[in-house]
Amino acid sequence: MRKALAAVVVMALLLVAAPAALAASVGLYSPAVRTVELEMPRDDAQGLTSWNVFGVSDKPSLGPEFDVTLTGVGGGIRYYLDGVDRGGVYLGGYAGLYWMSGKYSGSDTLARAVVLTAASGYKWKFSDFFIDMGARLSFPLSADTSSSYDAAAAFHEALGTQVQFGFGISF
Length: 171
Known about the structure:
Layout: H1 2-17, E1 25-31, E2 35-41, E3 49-58, E4 66-80, E5 88-104, E6 107-126, E7 129-145, H2 151-159, E8 161-170
Antiparallel strand pairs: 1-2, 1-8, 2-3, 3-4, 4-5, 5-6, 6-7, 7-8
């Protein structure tokens, strides 16, 4: 049920954001945490900067006492350094609202956090297809929990430093 809810949230974000853009890219990113991301060019930046909206739903490996699902939504911005329309070397920044729900040491748990992320990578464009490789460094700013574990540390372990591979289509 939770994965279905996360999928509905991601699809709603995509449907709301896509009509506003004349061109966009949709990608699936992994292996750290599976993420769906929609990238839309900024009108005033001639393709060098884009707005990004993302959705996350995955089961992070946090240890045997955790059986939780990590879900999140957020947005950010990317700046392409090579002067290519949404391609080449990029730097980015994201902000998201995340929550982990499930079981911790056999008890129900729910933790929420606001997370800021810095990203860097390279995006190869092939007509309507792209491949994206990069790294992300995430910082939980505030976290609360209804359990006995340190939520900020759990979010840092789940999201902390990520090497990501992504692919998708542009339209």
